[in-house]
Design goal:
- There is one protein chain.
- The protein is of the alpha/beta class.
- The protein is elongated and about 80 Å long.
- The strands form three sheets. The protein has a five-stranded parallel beta sheet. The protein has a three-stranded mixed beta sheet with strand order 3-4-7. It has a two-stranded antiparallel ribbon with strand order 9-10.
- Bound molecules: adenine.
- The site of adenine has 12 residues, from strand 5.
Amino acid sequence: MKFAVLTIFPEMFVPFWEHGIIRRAAESGKISVSAVNIRDFAEGRHHVTDDRPYGGGCGMVMKPEPLSAAIRAVKADMPSARTVLLTPQGRIFDQKTACELSSDEGIIFVCGRYEGVDERVCQGFISDEISIGDYVLTGGELAAMVIIDAVTRLIPGVLGGTESAEKDSFSQGLLEHAHYTRPRTFEGTDVPEVLLSGHHKEIDTWRLETSLIRTFLKRPDLLKNRTLSIQERKILKKWCADIENIIRDQPLCGTDPLSGSQ
Ligand code: ADE
Protein backbone atom coordinates (compact mmCIF):
# COMPACT_ATOMS: atom_id res chain seq x y z
CA MET A 1 0.00 0.00 0.00
CA LYS A 2 1.30 3.41 -0.99
CA PHE A 3 0.54 6.45 1.19
CA ALA A 4 1.29 9.96 -0.03
CA VAL A 5 0.49 12.99 2.11
CA LEU A 6 0.23 16.48 0.68
CA THR A 7 1.01 19.03 3.37
CA ILE A 8 2.74 22.32 4.03
CA PHE A 9 4.42 20.65 7.05
CA PRO A 10 6.12 17.50 5.69
CA GLU A 11 8.58 17.48 8.63
CA MET A 12 5.70 16.57 10.96
CA PHE A 13 5.64 13.12 9.35
CA VAL A 14 9.32 12.25 9.81
CA PRO A 15 9.05 11.01 13.42
CA PHE A 16 5.81 9.26 12.54
CA TRP A 17 7.40 7.22 9.72
CA GLU A 18 10.41 6.43 11.89
CA HIS A 19 8.82 4.63 14.82
CA GLY A 20 7.13 1.37 15.74
CA ILE A 21 4.93 -0.62 13.45
CA ILE A 22 4.78 2.07 10.75
CA ARG A 23 8.56 1.99 10.46
CA ARG A 24 8.61 -1.83 10.40
CA ALA A 25 5.87 -1.93 7.74
CA ALA A 26 7.79 0.55 5.59
CA GLU A 27 11.09 -1.33 6.01
CA SER A 28 9.49 -4.63 5.05
CA GLY A 29 7.89 -3.06 1.97
CA LYS A 30 4.30 -3.61 3.17
CA ILE A 31 3.74 0.13 2.87
CA SER A 32 5.54 3.01 1.20
CA VAL A 33 5.20 6.49 2.60
CA SER A 34 5.94 10.00 1.40
CA ALA A 35 5.13 13.51 2.53
CA VAL A 36 4.98 15.98 -0.34
CA ASN A 37 5.43 19.69 0.32
CA ILE A 38 2.60 21.65 -1.30
CA ARG A 39 4.84 24.72 -1.16
CA ASP A 40 7.12 23.10 -3.78
CA PHE A 41 4.25 23.50 -6.26
CA ALA A 42 3.58 27.17 -5.44
CA GLU A 43 4.78 29.80 -7.89
CA GLY A 44 6.68 32.98 -7.06
CA ARG A 45 9.58 33.83 -4.86
CA HIS A 46 7.63 33.25 -1.63
CA HIS A 47 5.87 30.02 -2.62
CA VAL A 48 2.60 31.27 -1.17
CA THR A 49 -0.05 28.56 -0.61
CA ASP A 50 -2.88 30.60 0.93
CA ASP A 51 -4.86 33.75 0.17
CA ARG A 52 -7.72 35.88 1.53
CA PRO A 53 -11.27 34.58 1.00
CA TYR A 54 -13.46 36.10 -1.72
CA GLY A 55 -16.42 37.79 -0.08
CA GLY A 56 -14.35 38.81 2.93
CA GLY A 57 -14.25 37.31 6.38
CA CYS A 58 -11.51 36.15 8.67
CA GLY A 59 -8.90 33.50 8.01
CA MET A 60 -7.11 32.36 4.89
CA VAL A 61 -7.97 29.78 2.23
CA MET A 62 -5.58 27.32 0.56
CA LYS A 63 -5.01 28.46 -3.02
CA PRO A 64 -6.16 26.08 -5.77
CA GLU A 65 -3.11 26.22 -8.10
CA PRO A 66 -0.38 24.76 -5.82
CA LEU A 67 -2.75 22.14 -4.39
CA SER A 68 -4.06 20.99 -7.75
CA ALA A 69 -0.53 20.85 -9.19
CA ALA A 70 0.66 18.79 -6.21
CA ILE A 71 -2.28 16.38 -6.49
CA ARG A 72 -1.74 15.97 -10.27
CA ALA A 73 1.98 15.25 -9.78
CA VAL A 74 1.37 12.62 -7.10
CA LYS A 75 -1.58 11.09 -8.96
CA ALA A 76 0.66 10.53 -12.01
CA ASP A 77 2.57 7.99 -9.89
CA MET A 78 -0.52 6.58 -8.17
CA PRO A 79 -3.30 6.65 -10.79
CA SER A 80 -5.62 4.24 -8.92
CA ALA A 81 -5.28 5.99 -5.54
CA ARG A 82 -8.23 7.70 -3.95
CA THR A 83 -7.68 11.32 -2.96
CA VAL A 84 -8.80 11.98 0.60
CA LEU A 85 -9.28 15.46 1.98
CA LEU A 86 -9.01 15.60 5.77
CA THR A 87 -11.72 17.92 6.99
CA PRO A 88 -14.15 18.12 9.91
CA GLN A 89 -16.91 18.12 7.26
CA GLY A 90 -16.04 14.59 6.08
CA ARG A 91 -17.61 11.25 6.99
CA ILE A 92 -16.49 10.10 10.41
CA PHE A 93 -13.57 7.66 10.36
CA ASP A 94 -14.13 4.35 12.17
CA GLN A 95 -12.81 0.78 12.17
CA LYS A 96 -15.09 -0.17 9.26
CA THR A 97 -13.64 2.63 7.13
CA ALA A 98 -10.12 1.58 8.20
CA CYS A 99 -10.89 -1.95 6.95
CA GLU A 100 -12.29 -0.62 3.68
CA LEU A 101 -9.20 1.56 3.07
CA SER A 102 -6.78 -1.24 3.95
CA SER A 103 -7.51 -3.05 0.69
CA ASP A 104 -6.68 0.00 -1.47
CA GLU A 105 -3.48 0.06 -3.54
CA GLY A 106 -2.75 3.64 -2.59
CA ILE A 107 -4.20 6.66 -0.82
CA ILE A 108 -3.34 10.32 -1.33
CA PHE A 109 -4.12 12.48 1.70
CA VAL A 110 -4.62 16.20 1.30
CA CYS A 111 -4.08 18.10 4.54
CA GLY A 112 -6.04 21.31 4.73
CA ARG A 113 -4.84 24.22 6.89
CA TYR A 114 -6.22 27.68 7.65
CA GLU A 115 -9.97 28.09 7.13
CA GLY A 116 -10.08 25.45 4.40
CA VAL A 117 -9.38 24.57 0.80
CA ASP A 118 -10.65 26.38 -2.31
CA GLU A 119 -13.96 24.69 -3.23
CA ARG A 120 -12.83 24.06 -6.83
CA VAL A 121 -10.12 21.72 -5.55
CA CYS A 122 -12.65 19.87 -3.37
CA GLN A 123 -14.97 19.42 -6.34
CA GLY A 124 -12.42 18.62 -9.04
CA PHE A 125 -9.68 16.67 -7.29
CA ILE A 126 -11.05 14.99 -4.14
CA SER A 127 -12.75 11.58 -4.11
CA ASP A 128 -13.40 11.26 -0.34
CA GLU A 129 -13.69 13.66 2.59
CA ILE A 130 -12.89 12.15 5.99
CA SER A 131 -13.08 13.55 9.53
CA ILE A 132 -11.56 11.86 12.58
CA GLY A 133 -14.19 13.31 14.92
CA ASP A 134 -16.47 16.21 15.68
CA TYR A 135 -13.81 18.70 16.73
CA VAL A 136 -11.62 21.08 14.75
CA LEU A 137 -7.86 20.57 14.44
CA THR A 138 -5.47 23.22 13.16
CA GLY A 139 -4.84 21.08 10.09
CA GLY A 140 -5.32 17.63 8.57
CA GLU A 141 -1.84 16.30 9.39
CA LEU A 142 -2.71 14.60 12.68
CA ALA A 143 -5.87 13.19 11.11
CA ALA A 144 -3.79 11.72 8.23
CA MET A 145 -1.45 10.07 10.76
CA VAL A 146 -4.38 8.60 12.69
CA ILE A 147 -5.82 7.08 9.52
CA ILE A 148 -2.48 5.79 8.19
CA ASP A 149 -1.80 4.18 11.59
CA ALA A 150 -5.22 2.49 11.83
CA VAL A 151 -5.11 1.31 8.19
CA THR A 152 -1.51 0.06 8.22
CA ARG A 153 -2.05 -2.34 11.12
CA LEU A 154 -4.87 -4.00 9.14
CA ILE A 155 -2.70 -4.75 6.10
CA PRO A 156 -2.00 -8.52 6.04
CA GLY A 157 1.43 -9.34 7.45
CA VAL A 158 1.99 -5.97 9.14
CA LEU A 159 1.18 -7.23 12.64
CA GLY A 160 3.26 -10.23 13.68
CA GLY A 161 1.85 -13.57 14.82
CA THR A 162 1.60 -12.42 18.44
CA GLU A 163 -0.24 -9.22 17.57
CA SER A 164 -3.58 -9.65 15.96
CA ALA A 165 -6.01 -7.22 14.43
CA GLU A 166 -8.81 -9.79 14.44
CA LYS A 167 -9.39 -9.51 18.19
CA ASP A 168 -9.20 -5.71 18.29
CA SER A 169 -11.87 -3.68 19.96
CA PHE A 170 -14.53 -2.86 17.35
CA SER A 171 -13.41 -5.47 14.81
CA GLN A 172 -15.99 -7.92 16.23
CA GLY A 173 -18.39 -5.18 17.25
CA LEU A 174 -17.34 -5.52 20.92
CA LEU A 175 -14.66 -3.87 23.04
CA GLU A 176 -11.65 -6.09 23.65
CA HIS A 177 -11.40 -8.24 26.80
CA ALA A 178 -9.24 -7.33 29.81
CA HIS A 179 -5.49 -8.07 29.64
CA TYR A 180 -3.04 -9.10 32.37
CA THR A 181 0.69 -9.80 32.42
CA ARG A 182 3.28 -10.51 35.15
CA PRO A 183 3.51 -10.07 38.10
CA ARG A 184 0.76 -12.40 39.26
CA THR A 185 -0.05 -10.03 42.16
CA PHE A 186 0.27 -6.29 41.68
CA GLU A 187 -0.32 -3.93 44.63
CA GLY A 188 -2.63 -6.48 46.26
CA THR A 189 -4.65 -7.38 43.14
CA ASP A 190 -4.33 -10.87 41.65
CA VAL A 191 -4.61 -11.95 38.05
CA PRO A 192 -7.99 -13.78 37.64
CA GLU A 193 -7.50 -17.45 38.47
CA VAL A 194 -8.99 -18.72 35.21
CA LEU A 195 -6.15 -17.14 33.19
CA LEU A 196 -3.65 -19.27 35.10
CA SER A 197 -5.69 -22.47 34.69
CA GLY A 198 -4.51 -23.46 31.21
CA HIS A 199 -8.14 -24.29 30.23
CA HIS A 200 -8.38 -22.63 26.84
CA LYS A 201 -12.13 -23.03 26.52
CA GLU A 202 -12.73 -21.48 29.94
CA ILE A 203 -10.30 -18.69 29.15
CA ASP A 204 -12.14 -17.97 25.89
CA THR A 205 -15.48 -17.87 27.73
CA TRP A 206 -14.03 -15.55 30.40
CA ARG A 207 -12.65 -13.28 27.69
CA LEU A 208 -15.96 -13.13 25.91
CA GLU A 209 -17.68 -12.31 29.22
CA THR A 210 -15.28 -9.47 30.04
CA SER A 211 -15.66 -8.23 26.49
CA LEU A 212 -19.45 -8.17 26.86
CA ILE A 213 -19.32 -6.53 30.31
CA ARG A 214 -17.00 -3.77 29.10
CA THR A 215 -19.06 -3.13 26.02
CA PHE A 216 -22.26 -3.04 28.10
CA LEU A 217 -20.78 -0.61 30.64
CA LYS A 218 -18.66 1.60 28.37
CA ARG A 219 -20.32 1.46 24.95
CA PRO A 220 -23.87 0.07 25.18
CA ASP A 221 -24.55 1.59 21.72
CA LEU A 222 -22.25 -1.06 20.20
CA LEU A 223 -24.29 -3.88 21.74
CA LYS A 224 -27.56 -2.43 20.50
CA ASN A 225 -26.30 -2.35 16.92
CA ARG A 226 -25.00 -5.90 16.91
CA THR A 227 -26.39 -9.34 16.10
CA LEU A 228 -25.56 -11.46 19.14
CA SER A 229 -24.18 -14.98 18.81
CA ILE A 230 -25.94 -17.83 20.62
CA GLN A 231 -23.16 -17.91 23.23
CA GLU A 232 -23.37 -14.15 23.80
CA ARG A 233 -27.15 -14.37 24.22
CA LYS A 234 -26.69 -17.17 26.79
CA ILE A 235 -24.18 -15.07 28.77
CA LEU A 236 -26.44 -12.00 28.78
CA LYS A 237 -29.48 -14.08 29.81
CA LYS A 238 -27.48 -15.62 32.66
CA TRP A 239 -26.57 -12.12 33.92
CA CYS A 240 -30.23 -11.11 33.77
CA ALA A 241 -31.20 -14.19 35.78
CA ASP A 242 -28.37 -13.55 38.30
CA ILE A 243 -29.43 -9.91 38.74
CA GLU A 244 -33.10 -10.88 39.14
CA ASN A 245 -32.14 -13.42 41.81
CA ILE A 246 -30.14 -10.79 43.70
CA ILE A 247 -33.08 -8.35 43.60
CA ARG A 248 -35.62 -11.03 44.57
CA ASP A 249 -33.55 -12.10 47.57
CA GLN A 250 -33.22 -8.53 48.92
CA PRO A 251 -35.43 -7.58 51.86
CA LEU A 252 -37.44 -4.41 51.13
CA CYS A 253 -36.25 -1.67 53.47
CA GLY A 254 -35.86 2.10 53.53
CA THR A 255 -37.94 4.65 51.67
CA ASP A 256 -37.97 5.65 48.04
CA PRO A 257 -36.33 9.12 48.16
CA LEU A 258 -38.49 10.32 45.25
CA SER A 259 -41.95 9.14 46.28
CA GLY A 260 -41.38 8.85 50.02
CA SER A 261 -43.02 5.39 49.97
CA GLN A 262 -41.39 2.01 50.62
N1 ADE B 1 -8.97 19.04 9.99
C1 ADE B 1 -9.39 19.80 10.99
N2 ADE B 1 -10.16 19.15 11.83
C2 ADE B 1 -10.25 17.87 11.36
C3 ADE B 1 -10.92 16.71 11.79
N3 ADE B 1 -11.67 16.69 12.88
N4 ADE B 1 -10.78 15.59 11.06
C4 ADE B 1 -10.04 15.60 9.93
N5 ADE B 1 -9.39 16.67 9.47
C5 ADE B 1 -9.49 17.81 10.18
